[in-house]
Amino acid sequence: MKVSYLQITGAESCPNIVGLPICYIVTIGYGLMFLALLLSIPVKHISTPVFLSGWAITFLIALSGTALEIINGHTCPIGFGWLPLCYVSLALCILIFGLFKWTQKSAQVT
């Protein structure tokens, strides 16, 4: 969200895809995952597709950004002073998906 804010204020820019800054798309993806969390109790059958759509968007962008960062360098915005944020986003996507699958499995057991 910080990168999206910096994009809006013009302090920093993130790469574009079809004319839309990627940081906005990633923020929407994370927002969909969060929305799925909020929907998971009252509307279970809707929360999984919402989560997976947000996760897929974010994961594919993070995976692509990571690959481009490794191949070309200087592709992703930098966070924490030195770490490309696509690495952070990819790690978060993997962790979030693992937690999602674990909670799905735990819900089936109970």
Characterize this entry briefly.
With 110 residues, this protein is mainly α. Helix content is 72%, strand content 7%. The chain has helices at residues 2-9, 22-39, 44-71, 85-109, and strands at residues 16-17, 20-21, 78-79, 83-84.
Q: Could you outline the blueprint of secondary structure elements for this entry?
A:
Elements: H1 2-9, E1 16-17, E2 20-21, H2 22-39, H3 44-71, E3 78-79, E4 83-84, H4 85-109
What does this structure look like?
With 110 residues, this protein is mainly alpha-helical. The protein has one domain (2-109). Helices cover 72% and strands 7% of the residues. The protein is built from 4 helices and 4 strands, in the order αββααββα. It has helices at 2-9, 22-39, 44-71, 85-109; strands at 16-17, 20-21, 78-79, 83-84. A two-stranded antiparallel sheet has the order 1-2. A two-stranded antiparallel sheet has the order 3-4. Strand 3 (78-79) and strand 4 (83-84) form a beta hairpin. Helix 2 (22-39) packs antiparallel against helix 3 and helix 3 packs antiparallel against helix 4. The longest helix is centred in the middle third of the chain and has 28 residues, at 44-71. The protein is elongated, with a radius of gyration of 15 Å. The model has no long low-confidence stretch (mean pLDDT 85).
